Amino acid sequence: MNKEKRSAIYRRLQERDPSPSTELDWVDPFELLVAVVLSAQATDVSVNKATAELFPVANTPEKILRLGVARLKRYIRTIGLFNSKADNIIKTCRILIEDHGGQVPRTREALEKLPGVGRKTANVILNTAFGEPTIAVDTHIFRVANRTRMAKGKNPLEVETRLTRLTPPEFRKDAHHWLILHGRYVCKARKPECPRCVIADLCEFPDKTPEDS
Questions:
Q1: How many CA atoms lie less than 13 Å away from 87 in the CB half-sphere?
Q2: How far is residue 90 CA from its own chain's centroid?
Q3: N or C, fewer C-beta in 10 Å, the chain?
Q4: Are 153 and 161 in contact (CB under 8 A)?
């Protein structure tokens, strides 16, 4: 895919959604961090339901530590892998208090040292909480980037590297949100909704879903 076509794709996604953001509910970087950790292998809807109960009770590292791992698990028990996620959140809260003054760090290196935080989660925090032009490649973005031929890669890091290099600077900050939402609601895994796709004529996927299917 050439750069003109890639820029045209971003412009159309921008026109459809000028101010994209995550669908997770949060009000500060710590709430976002907890929500993103919980969202691994879980839907944003399920995470929002859990944090709607949790955050009014405990939404700081100090409050979650006082809550304790057993009580934390009660709030997030509807989310997959809640046992390990609760343990990671408690450990993360201790590190934030002991090493970062209770604040979420703003560097990738520091974020990736937190339990349960990998490269994708760090990219989400850097982008959504701090406005950095990072691109967090999840399953949706991996699929969209490969399917459209915007940035082909065999693994998430390859796709991230190519997307970051090939995405024009003016679109880089919001690219993550546009692509994930497009993959979640239009360019779906089993049956992409090509007939209603705003970038269908620019997409280089050879097996587009026909109008009458």
A1: 3
A2: 21
A3: C
A4: yes
Distance in angstroms (rounded) separating the CA atoms of residues 46 and 76: 9
Domains and CATH numbers, the chain: 3-20+137-196 (1.10.1670.10), 29-129 (1.10.340.30)
Q: Which residue matches tokens 């859990």?
A: 50
Residue 97 and residue 88: Cα distance in Å, rounded? 14
Is the whole-model pTM more than 0.85? Answer: yes
The token duo for 34 is 């907890």
Query: Which residues are the active-site residues?
Result: 120, 138
Residues in CB range of 174: below 8 A, 6 or more apart: 14, 19, 20
Looking up tokens 């969209």 gives: 144
Residue 204, CA distances (Å) to 2, 81, 100, 201 in order: 11, 37, 46, 8
- Which stretches of the chain drop beneath a pLDDT of 70? 213
Count of residues in the chain? 213
Write out pLDDT tens, residues 65-81: 999 999 999 999 999 89
